């Protein structure tokens, strides 16, 4: 699963330390007296009535005599239950735990048995479990049926042992209309015609795997495919979309060969399908073994309409999910407390693969935004250890967050750099060979890595995964050299109050002009014989922030133009975060910007642009905002002039995305020339896909009622779910409050593409949090909205974390108390704190920064070397 929902571009939270979610007596795992060996599953769906009949025959092993077989089941209606074809059971359900107890009159003897269960259920609209997704075509409404189970929704599809360590094999058959296609983890074995209109599809038996990786998709599909390394690799799309599948197939072919080589373990299934949903699914996409299920925008690439950013994003999600085929599917975490073994590794691997196969994208440099996201979250009260306590299904769902994904990826990137690429890969290959088709905890990997590297890997990994929080490296230069110390950093420092004392073993690289880089292990404090300005964490491989004293910060500024882009980004990221948190002046960020050459790497200028946009978000419509916007336009317009407003031959692959970001940000900042040009481009339908997309975003944001209606009509008439989704996404950013209110109403219906409601409302919430709070939150639990429980919570967090009115806090707390179970409330701690911190930034940080802007008596200067 590649995504989790980040409520805002920057979630800022106050210095409030709260306990983790209330502890449960023990993880809610099933008894171990009965274990599954093999499932034979037959499904008969009725796509019109949105119901299905199921029958499952489970080969089980009874380890200890028992009268009760306890397994998972949720929203299923049981019929006849028998053991070994003769003994009947009575059934009781525990809806709170999602369990069924099958009670027999006499104890079951130890050894093998066969359990048969007839049952039925309803096909839902929320994109977890077994659900329907509708979309419009020239022939009318079409329907796709599909499953999505991670972490604990397989129990909504079949009675099973729905835990990652309870691996078994599966043999699946399904009855479907004769004009439909069914896709599952394994290839089709046979098809039999049941009638003139119905056929039964039998799939090949799977290897041993976890229940959450099982998949079934039924629809009007087309498949394109090729063979690579003996594996049939295909992309499955709704009819008519094969042209949009070609790019993903090309990249999947490269990736499967690359991963076979990297992991040293050949992909063990005979086929791998990448399946496109006709909308958005919960979690973004899902790594089902041999049948990855993708939200449409994460797999489809339309040569006529998709942008360069789309191209790179599709690759990253495809590579993320394909990495899971080894890290997660072949070798699976034993329990959800080690989810980072799946998601952190796949998040890191998507970048590693991109750098190997498309070095021109500089994805490793772009990945600093991933690590930065983890650092931002890790400084808030909602943080938690990477290896966290997960006792319930609700907690398992909450575990899919920035700590698991982004901090996890950052820690792995740090360890890869410290171990060395070749040795790290050798350790991964040993791990794969040793644990294939099994379950592990993180120490199983890192103990191997320590033996390979002969370095203290377990100690470093423990420090960064068993304790929460982000290290702050404190730099000072007493007379005896360079002194480094560490403490924990938070998103807020009040009156110089600092964080609690914590220690990490941090592998740091130091760079001093005229000397080779030096690597040290920082544990508590260290003094080095360095008497010149030193760049700490050169290469940005350590998961930490760095705080320089004012004099050393000033001494580093002249080096900024010649620093590698990775270190320019590091200085920018740290100064932005530490400035907003009041550890240092916010103006430090712009002091660095003033030293950047106009021809600095586009990725660096994208970071500058994104921070300008996020900073503008904190301002109310006052003269101070007008002054900031004037300052910001003066900062960004020379960069746009430098790269040119139009694409040109020979520009790098990251220049179009910088141009798009600059133009859309300048439009947001009120540059009338850019807004006028965007309206002309969109009306004329001319320009590249990048130019058209940017024009759409600018026009949608600045739209009046008439322009909004034109774009809304265009979305409604589009027969392409992907095109429809992109227009609605743009309209979600509309600035006019009355039009934003209309967009909220639309997003609460099934007018928008299936599964996209939560994203649309969260998009509106970025600029209109109070409006979303009053207009959307009271209705998000309505079944008509189609929002799953975790999606409802994500919308609440998106709206609340953008509020700055302290008077809203009781309302937010009231929602949490009424709607969120106690074992799932911890992430909301940061949401409440974010409101307070937004208010503090408004009142304190911006006031000081506005004085700095006012003191700028000349246009912002740039180092023009290289022009």
In short:
This protein has 867 residues and is of the alpha+beta class. Helix content is 40%, strand content 22%. It is built from 26 helices and 29 strands.
Describe the structure.
The chain has 867 residues and is of the alpha+beta class. 40% of the residues lie in helices and 22% in strands. The chain has 26 helices and 29 strands. An eight-stranded mixed β-sheet has the order 5-4-8-2-1-11-14-13, with no helix packed on it. A five-stranded mixed β-sheet has the order 16-17-18-20-19, with helices on one face. Strands 9-10-15-12 form a four-stranded antiparallel β-sheet, with no helix packed on it. The longest helix has 29 residues, at 826-854. The two termini are 43 Å apart. Residues 3-25 and 859-867 have low confidence and may be disordered.
Blueprint (SSEs and pairs):
Blueprint: E1 34-46, E2 51-62, E3 66-72, E4 76-83, E5 87-88, E6 90-94, E7 99-108, E8 111-122, E9 129-137, E10 140-148, E11 169-177, E12 181-184, E13 188-193, E14 198-203, E15 216-219, E16 221-228, E17 231-238, H1 242-263, E18 271-276, E19 285-286, E20 291-294, H2 308-324, E21 332-333, H3 340-357, H4 363-366, H5 368-378, H6 393-398, H7 402-419, H8 421-435, E22 439-440, H9 442-453, H10 457-465, E23 470-476, E24 482-489, E25 505-512, E26 518-523, E27 525-528, E28 534-536, E29 545-547, H11 550-556, H12 565-580, H13 587-593, H14 602-618, H15 623-643, H16 655-668, H17 672-684, H18 689-701, H19 705-717, H20 721-731, H21 737-747, H22 757-767, H23 769-775, H24 789-800, H25 809-819, H26 826-854
Parallel strand pairs: 1-11, 17-18, 18-20, 21-22, 23-29
Antiparallel strand pairs: 1-2, 2-8, 3-7, 4-5, 4-8, 6-7, 9-10, 10-15, 11-14, 12-15, 13-14, 16-17, 19-20, 23-24, 24-27, 25-26, 25-28
Helix pairs in contact: 1-2, 2-3, 3-7, 5-7, 7-8, 7-10, 8-9, 12-13, 12-14, 14-15, 14-16, 15-16, 16-17, 16-18, 17-18, 19-20, 21-22, 22-23, 22-24, 23-24
């Amino acid at each position: 699963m590649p995504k989790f929902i980040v409520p805002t571009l920057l979630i800022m939270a106050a210095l409030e330390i709260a306990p983790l979610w209330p502890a449960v007596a023990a993880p809610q795992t099933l008894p171990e007296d009965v274990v599954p060996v093999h499932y034979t599953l037959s499904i008969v769906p009725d796509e019109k009535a949105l119901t299905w009949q199921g029958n499952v025959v489970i080969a089980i092993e009874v380890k200890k005599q028992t009268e009760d077989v306890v397994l998972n089941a949720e929203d299923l209606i049981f019929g006849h239950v028998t053991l070994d074809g003769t003994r009947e059971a009575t059934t009781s359900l525990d809806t709170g735990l999602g369990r069924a107890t099958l009670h027999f009159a006499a104890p079951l003897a130890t050894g093998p048995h066969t359990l048969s269960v007839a049952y039925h259920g309803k096909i839902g609209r929320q994109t977890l479990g077994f659900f329907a997704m509708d979309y419009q075509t020239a022939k009318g409404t079409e329907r796709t049926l599909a499953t999505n189970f991670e972490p604990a929704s397989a129990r909504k599809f079949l009675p099973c042992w729905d835990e990652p360590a309870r691996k078994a094999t599966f043999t699946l058959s399904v009855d479907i209309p004769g004009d439909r296609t069914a896709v599952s983890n394994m290839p089709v074995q046979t098809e039999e015609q049941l009638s003139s209109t119905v056929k039964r599809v039998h799939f090949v038996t799977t290897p041993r795997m976890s229940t959450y990786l099982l998949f079934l998709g039924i629809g009007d599909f087309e498949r394109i495919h090729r063979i690579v390394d003996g594996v049939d690799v295909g992309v499955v799309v709704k009819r008519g979309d094969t042209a949009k599948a070609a790019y993903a197939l090309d990249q999947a072919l490269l990736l499967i060969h690359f991963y076979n080589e990297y992991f040293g373990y050949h992909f063990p299934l005979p086929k791998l399908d990448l399946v496109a949903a006709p909308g958005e699914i919960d979690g973004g996409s899902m790594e089902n073994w041999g049948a990855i299920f993708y939200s449409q925008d994460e797999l489809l690439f339309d040569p006529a309409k998709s942008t360069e950013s789309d191209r790179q994003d599709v690759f990253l999600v495809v590579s993320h999910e394909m990495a899971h085929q080894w890290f997660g599917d072949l070798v699976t975490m034993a329990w959800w407390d080690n989810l980072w073994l799946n998601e952190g590794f796949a998040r890191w691997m998507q970048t590693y693969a991109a750098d190997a196969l498309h070095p021109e994208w500089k994805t490793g440099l772009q990945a600093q935004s991933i690590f930065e996201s983890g650092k931002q979250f890790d400084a808030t009260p909602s943080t938690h250890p990477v290896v966290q306590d997960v006792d319930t299904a609700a907690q398992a769902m909450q575990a899919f967050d920035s700590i698991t994904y982004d901090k996890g990826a950052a820690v792995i990137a740090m360890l890869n750099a410290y171990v060395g690429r070749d040795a790290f890969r050798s350790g991964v290959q040993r791990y794969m060979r040793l644990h294939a088709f099994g379950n592990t905890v993180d120490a199983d990997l890192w103990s191997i890595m320590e033996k390979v590297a002969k370095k203290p890997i377990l100690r470093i990994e423990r420090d960064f995964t068993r304790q929460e929080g982000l290290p702050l490296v404190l730099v000072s230069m007493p007379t005896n050299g360079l002194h480094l110390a560490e403490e924990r950093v938070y998103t807020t420092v009040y009156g110089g109050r600092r964080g609690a004392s914590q220690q990490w073993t941090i592998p740091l690289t130091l760079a001093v002009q005229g000397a080779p880089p030096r690597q040290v292990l920082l544990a508590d404090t260290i003094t080095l014989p360095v008497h010149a300005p030193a760049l700490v964490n050169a290469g940005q491989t350590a998961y930490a922030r760095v705080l320089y004293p004012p004099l050393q910060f000033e001494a580093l500024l002249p080096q900024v133009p010649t620093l590698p882009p990775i270190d320019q980004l590091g200085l920018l990221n740290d100064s932005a975060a530490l400035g907003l948190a009041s550890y240092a002046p916010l103006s430090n960020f712009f002091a660095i910007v003033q030293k950047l050459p106009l021809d600095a790497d586009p990725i660096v200028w994208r970071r500058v642009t994104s921070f300008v946009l996020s900073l503008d978000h904190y301002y109310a419509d006052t003269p101070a905002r007008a002054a900031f916007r004037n300052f910001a336009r003066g900062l960004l317009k020379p960069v746009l002039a430098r790269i040119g407003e139009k694409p040109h031959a020979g520009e790098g692959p990251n220049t179009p995305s910088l141009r798009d970001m600059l133009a859309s940000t300048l439009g947001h900042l009120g540059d009338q020339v850019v807004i006028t040009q965007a309206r002309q481009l969109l009306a004329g339908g001319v320009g590249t896909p990048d130019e058209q997309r940017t024009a759409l975003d600018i026009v949608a944001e600045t739209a009046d009622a008439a322009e909004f209606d034109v774009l809304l009509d265009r979305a409604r008439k589009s027969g392409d779910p992907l095109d429809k989704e992109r227009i609605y996404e743009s309209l979600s950013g509309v600035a006019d409050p009355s039009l934003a209110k209309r967009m909220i109403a639309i997003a609460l219906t099934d007018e928008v593409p299936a599964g996209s409601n939560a994203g649309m409302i969260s998009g509106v919430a970025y600029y209109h949090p109070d409006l979303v709070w009053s207009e959307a939150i009271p209705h998000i639990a309505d079944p008509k909205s189609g929002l799953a429980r975790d999606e409802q919570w994500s919308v609440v967090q998106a709206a609340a974390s953008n509020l700055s009115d302290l008077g809203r806090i009781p309302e937010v707390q009231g929602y949490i108390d009424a709607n969120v179970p106690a074992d799932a409330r911890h992430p909301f701690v940061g949401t409440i704190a974010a409101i307070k911190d937004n208010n503090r930034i408004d009142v304190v940080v911006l006031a000081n920064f506005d004085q700095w802007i006012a003191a700028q008596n000349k246009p912002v200067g740039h180092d023009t070397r290289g022009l």
